[in-house]
Write a structure and sequence with these properties.
By secondary structure, the chain is α+β, with helices and mostly antiparallel strands. It is built from 16 helices and 25 strands. The protein folds into 3 domains: 213 residues, Aldehyde oxidase/xanthine dehydrogenase, a/b hammerhead (Aldehyde Oxidoreductase, domain 3), CATH 3.90.1170.50; 314 residues, Aldehyde oxidase/xanthine dehydrogenase, molybdopterin binding domain (Aldehyde Oxidoreductase, domain 4), CATH 3.30.365.10; 103 residues, Aldehyde oxidase/xanthine dehydrogenase, molybdopterin binding domain (Aldehyde Oxidoreductase, domain 4). Helix 7 packs parallel to helix 8, helix 8 packs parallel to helix 15 and helix 12 runs parallel beside helix 13.
Length: 697
């Protein structure tokens, strides 16, 4: 389908076209019967009462979908211990919220009523939790490089827990599948970040040729990584439409998103940073422990891999010993969520640096400047074998401190502390790998002069249509209004990797640019319109970077944290659409603030979800957002013709680390305080009480 070039007015007026808008009135509705146990043996599923309800078409259980499983995991990092997940639980249940049965009915209310009538008998079994040593090992990595040269003066240690989070997209998961008998094809509407992969996964699961599956991703109310992989429910809806030769629709409730949607983060980070007397980083040891869920989405291993390879960030360190392990648990799946391992790497490294600064009596800014990789060293080979293509990290820090008025802020901090206030300054730098691989584009210059751009990279609100449209218009010398951008439709668009890993402008935009340059050259050669060309652009990974500075106060009476100031200098390469870049930065910062201050998914020891609704899981509101001062340092990437790098995930990377350092700095007069995310008022108040009470005894 063709997406409007400028979506803002369409969406604000409520005229967007979403997945559920594709379903005709006569479509069958799906409701799932979900397990209330985290781990159990399925003894019996009795659907007789449900089947007697008028309007119920079928009730499926595991035996009805034998042999149909979820797609495999990205095989880039062997060895991998993986086992496919059945679409409906049997013979075992693996997490609370796992679908045990599926009801198809003529309307949504009947489907829900029938689901309540299905009787499921389960025999409870012990559940693996986040720290269970018996939990199944899925994957591990190890990086060892270099030799420390110098005498250790300071060793900073950190043990940080990064809580499990929910992406909290405004639009929960939804799927509509429609069988066209004359075409022998399945048309599927699905909010997907990777339509071509979703098309291939569903075709493979159903035993269809890929050309028999037409996948459309219309407007999407948020994705953030959680819609990069298809879920068992998506395959079941498609399977039902194929078997019943009709249209089937499903939309998740918010509760279903909490129970069975893809979560993010869920890591424990342990590290040691050794520093010599001159403040030079000698060695970094890091142990990364990731908790996965009961089944593995396609990119389940990406967060651990990213965190392990990104360390030690933008710094020179003589020796690095980095290990990582991912283990299963009897919980909902964990996949990629905005940042996907990048926030964990920044949090660990930046926390260690600030701790080292306090122990050594150094200011944290000069300590960082002493160890940052210089721009003259680019491209720089990191201890984990990655290549930083470009960047000027010292200049990022200097510019941020200049705009922040760092020295003056430190003086104000001393004055406020003298008046009894708890106030801290936090700084964090980060590097961000921005995707590698390929993307495609097909551009047609029509006889009437208008241009159609078809991209394999879809849009979930980032504004790719505007970016790609401007690239085409400026390259071909046509008015912007004459450019139409097609995305998210496997019939109309060439295959592509998708919109994830902060890669769309750098790689997808470069594919559009190359296609348009080819058309321009053909016109210069005198070829008549219409003309069409299709290109595939492939690139190594560009690395974005940035620096965040935060001033935070903590109320002595309540422990309530308040971000008083947040300044951020980003380097996303050359910026094609500054307004869209700003939107991405602010949106990412909101989610980064949520992670830092309030968001946390909690399971108990038996695998029961304790934060299963918005009554228990807090997300930022408008009054939680501080003013955000944005500045940019544009260091172009040499790896793509646009000089672009990624920007969409940056706010989730640098912001939580800077807030953590600001909170620890605020309480530093009490000594080294062990704080964990999220930094809720209760935790800060208890830290204040424990320290002050101890001083009085």
């Amino acid at each position: 389908m063709a997406k409007p070039m400028r979506d803002d007015e369409t969406l604000i007026r409520g005229l967007g076209f979403y997945v559920q808008d594709a379903a005709p009135d006569q479509a069958l509705h799906v409701a799932f019967v979900r397990s209330d146990h985290a781990h159990a043996r399925v003894l019996e599923v009795d659907a007789s009462a449900a089947l007697d309800l008028p309007g119920v078409v079928a009730v499926w259980q595991a035996s009805d979908v034998t042999g149909v499983v979820t797609p495999g995991v990205n095989p880039l990092w062997p060895p991998l211990l993986d086992s496919p997940m059945p679409l409906l639980a049997g013979p075992w249940v693996e997490h609370v919220g796992q679908a045990v049965a599926m009801v198809l009915a003529q309307d949504a209310a009947t489907a829900q009523e029938a689901a309540l009538l299905v009787q499921v008998s389960l025999e409870a079994l012990p559940a693996w939790g986040a720290d269970d040593p018996d939990a199944s090992l899925v994957h591990q990595v190890a990086h060892t490089h270099g030799q420390a040269q110098g005498q250790v003066a300071v060793v900073a240690r950190a043990d940080l827990t990064v809580p499990r989070l929910l992406a909290m997209a405004m639009e929960p998961r939804a799927c509509v599948a429609q069988w066209h008998a004359q075409e022998e094809r399945l048309h599927i509407w699905l909010g997907s970040q990777s339509p071509a992969r979703a098309q291939a996964d569903i075709a493979r699961a159903l035993g269809l040729a890929q050309a028999q599956v037409h996948l459309i991703s219309p407007h999407v109310g948020g994705a953030f990584g959680s819609k990069a992989s298809i879920s068992p429910e998506d395959i079941l809806v498609a399977l039902a439409a194929h078997r019943w030769r009709t249209t089937v629709q499903w939309k998740a409730s918010r509760s279903e998103e909490f129970l069975s949607g893809q979560h993010g983060r869920a890591a424990r980070l342990q590290g040691q940073l050794a520093v010599d007397a001159q403040g030079r980083f000698l060695s970094l040891q890091a142990q990364l422990h990731y908790t996965l869920g009961a089944w593995l989405p396609y990119s389940a291993l990406v967060p651990m891999r990213n965190a392990a390879r990104i360390l030690p960030g933008p710094y020179r360190v003589d020796r690095c010993d980095i290990t990582g392990q991912s283990r299963r648990s009897h919980t909902a799946p964990v996949g990629i969520y905005r940042g996907a391992g990048r926030p964990e790497a920044a949090l660990l490294m930046e926390t260690l640096i600030d701790q080292a600064a306090r122990q050594g009596g150094w200011d944290p800014v000069p300590l960082r400047l002493r160890n940052l990789i210089d721009a003259s060293a680019m491209p720089y080979r990191t201890p984990t074998g990655e290549t930083l293509d470009s960047g000027d990290f010292p200049q990022l820090l200097r510019l941020a401190c200049e705009r922040f008025g760092y020295d003056q802020e430190r003086e104000r901090q001393r004055q406020r502390r003298a008046q009894g206030e708890w106030v801290g300054l936090g700084v964090a730098l980060y590097v961000e790998p921005c995707g590698q691989g390929w993307e495609s584009a097909r551009v047609t210059w029509h006889a009437d002069g208008h241009v159609s751009v078809a991209s394999g990279s879809p849009d979930q609100g980032q504004g790719h249509a505007i970016t790609y449209g401007h690239i085409a218009a400026s390259t071909l010398g046509v008015p912007f209004a004459q450019v139409q951008v097609l995305m998210g439709d496997t019939d109309l668009c060439p295959p592509g990797t998708g919109a994830l890993a902060s890669r769309s402008t750098a790689i997808g935009g470069s594919a559009v640019l190359q296609a348009c340059q080819s058309l321009r050259d053909q016109r210069a050669q005198g070829l008549p319109l219409p003309l069409t060309t299709e290109t595939r652009f492939e690139s190594q990974e560009a690395w974005a970077s940035g620096c965040v500075l935060v001033r935070m106060s903590v109320d002595a009476a309540t422990g309530q944290p308040r971000i008083e100031r947040l300044l951020w200098v980003d380097d996303a390469g050359l910026s094609l659409q500054p307004d869209l870049v700003r939107d991405q930065l602010v949106g990412g910062a909101a989610q980064g603030i949520g992670q830092a201050l309030m968001e946390q998914m909690v399971y108990d020891s038996e695998g029961q979800l304790l934060t299963g609704s918005l009554m228990d899981y807090a997300v930022p509101r408008a009054d939680d957002m501080p003013p955000i001062e944005l500045h940019s340092l544009h260091t172009p990437s040499p790896l793509n013709p646009l000089g672009a790098k990624g920007v969409g995930e940056a706010g989730c990377i640098g912001v939580p680390a800077a807030i953590m350092n600001a909170a620890r700095d605020a309480l530093s007069p009490l000594g080294e305080v062990d704080l964990q995310l999220p930094l809720r008022a209760e935790q800060l108040w208890l830290a204040l009480q424990a320290k002050t009470s101890g001083d009085q005894t």
